[in-house]
Amino acid sequence: MSAIPAPLIPSASVAQPAATPQTTSKMQHVASVLTDPAVMVSLVGLTGTLIASAMSAMSQREAKIMEKKQQEEQAEAEARAEAERRVAARRDPLLLAAIDLEERLVAIATRNVLAQSGKDSAVPPSLPDFHRLYTMFLLSAFLGYIQSIQDERVSLAVDAKYGQYDLRLRRNLQRHLGRIRYTLTKGKAPLRIPSGAQRAIGELMLTTSPSGDVRVISFTEFLERMRGQDVDGDGWSDDENNWLYIALLENIKRDLDALADAPQSAFRRVVYLQNDTVRLVQLLDPDRQLVGGDMKMLDISDYVSGKGDDDMASSSVDMNDEPIQTSTGHFAWPWQITPHLSTSGVDVVEVDKKAVAEVDVGPDGEEILPVETIDDDDDDAKASVDAMK
Q: Following DSSP, what letter does each residue of 174-226 receive, concatenated?
């Protein structure tokens, strides 16, 4: 038998739940409350209070953020000012010393100074000539400023965020100072000062002020040291406290005397050193704030008759060259490396020990390991350094 379908019930016949009197009363009460002006005012006030509280909290948070930012900016400004003060305290004296020395080197190379030596009737013949004394002072003071920087291991650079004094300046400064030391050591031209003697003279030019600051002695103090007690009447101090000082400077005085009547080629170290000081001034004063005028490098070709006469030719390399890592793992600047041909026919390099700066920085800012800078046969330099210990 087939199933009998269930009868269909019309939807209209389904009973809907009727609203009870209690439900209707609650809805009417809510409606009356929401439409009550007093309640509306209270709701608006409460909403405003909540919004004001939220805005106040945001304002306080923003104020704290702004205050913290201002404190950080003030601290950074103070740190920058202090860093620039420290930079100027060490940069400016070195810069001024380089400017003074460069002017004197030009005068020597053009024979404008040495030609006047010994012709000042106000200076007794038994005393050292003023022109030579002042030249010795300028060179010694310059070495003193270099030594003060390297003794303290103080960089003229500050953090990169404090402006132009960054790691690049530090690296370039050490490169220039190392090159100057090298120029004074390389070759056989007059005014050669071994590395040990450079350091000894630099240290002897330093003194400590009552405030504890290390400074380079003045020309007056320099003359006092030179004067001392002159027993044998040669114009040089015989004071036992100054004997080392005089001994180190005696070679400089002797070479200055020899340059008075020397051929043009004898001035090549003077010219190379003048070129180096010009580069240093350009590095320290790129905006020419302290340089009175244009400083031009003397042409070394005017002071050598041929390539074979220039035993300092390696000093003229490009200062933009990067350090090279040698077979020993040390870094050295290109002008410190002497190429030669090995027995196997392969080109190799060795570090010129007299050329490596006492403090140097590698291509990534790492300190270059120092190489012994005193000649094996330089007993005077060794004695000078030992006496300083």
A: HHHHHHHHHHHHSSSSSS---HHHHHHHHHHTEEE-TTS-EEEPPHHHHHHHH
